[in-house]
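User:
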Amino acid sequence: MKAVLCASLLGGLLLIIPTGCATDSDYSSLRLTGDPIADSRVAIERGPKRDRVLWEYRAGLAYMRKGQFEEAKRLLDDAILSIGGIKTADSDSRKARGYFHSESKKTFLGEPYERVMAFYYRGILYWMDGEPDNARACFRSAQIEDSDNENKTYSADYVLLDYLDGLATAKLAGDGSDADKRARKLDKTGSLPACDPKANVLIFLDFGQGPHKFATGEYGQELRFGEGNQRVRNALVTVDNQSVRAPAFDDLYFQAITRGGRVMDHILGNKAVFKETTAIAGMGAIVGGAVLLQNRGTREVGAGLLALGVLSEVVSAATTPEADIRAWDNLPQYLSFVALTASPGQHTMRIDFQDAYGDAVEGLSKTITLNIPVGSRDSIIYISDQSTSF
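Assistant: Predicted structure:
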């Protein structure tokens, strides 16, 4: 009787545990090329919906590096809407918290540093459009995204987000001194520009290869970050005869590894413990059941124990503690900024991206013709070492 009951329980559980059927996460039929813009069009249209924000991140930044800012705004706006609207309500995200669903099945919103960068880039684009108030709102929202970690030592510790908050406030005739003080306290370079509301040429720079994700642990349950191979460490901005060094004020690799604990970190850890415990218990029950089956007087108990062991092994095999290593993989590592004052008219700007020794990295220098308008509107320049149009 016990064996029959256990067999019934096993059959019932198998009906509710997901099986390895085909999934819409298979990109093999989409013929991706490696171009984030071309691939995003295909993936957003035909790929899994849970990856939509990831592709919007990638393509939005790729468009910015091509100087196609309207397309970047459209994609980043949609991604930011998802950040605000799906974080707790998405059904796939709820499923990922269960033992039998992988974290990679949830809707991708990214780690804190990735969400920060969506707001950061959108803030730049708002400032380009002459809306420093909306830019400031984005920089503040980015700080909020960085403040949800457990280790408050590294909470909201981006230098540029505080600095730009203070500068935008000063330009809006407000008092940005508190934000500026926070930025200078965080800055380790001593090179932050003055918080001068009269500075009318604002140059946003990024360079280097951003962090990548990988999983460690027996079951791949531990999310880890690796640093890219960096050639560029600084930039030198020259406008006419005025040169300003632009060091790395913020480091996304540092932000990634100091993100603190996430709810999902604990969930994946619990999943790993559950998987291991059920596997051990299942094997013990199978061995014990097999032994008891050898004796006529204990065969019924042995059969029941054997069925429970098989059940436990099935549950263990179906538990998915693997970390989600999907990543916004074309991010930079370093963020920098230069603020200058220039008279109305035409100016020539050259940007040299430098290595750790201060030498220009061959093939990455950019020369731009600036046309400074008469009036109060700032000239906003965004340049990456990966920019192809400027």
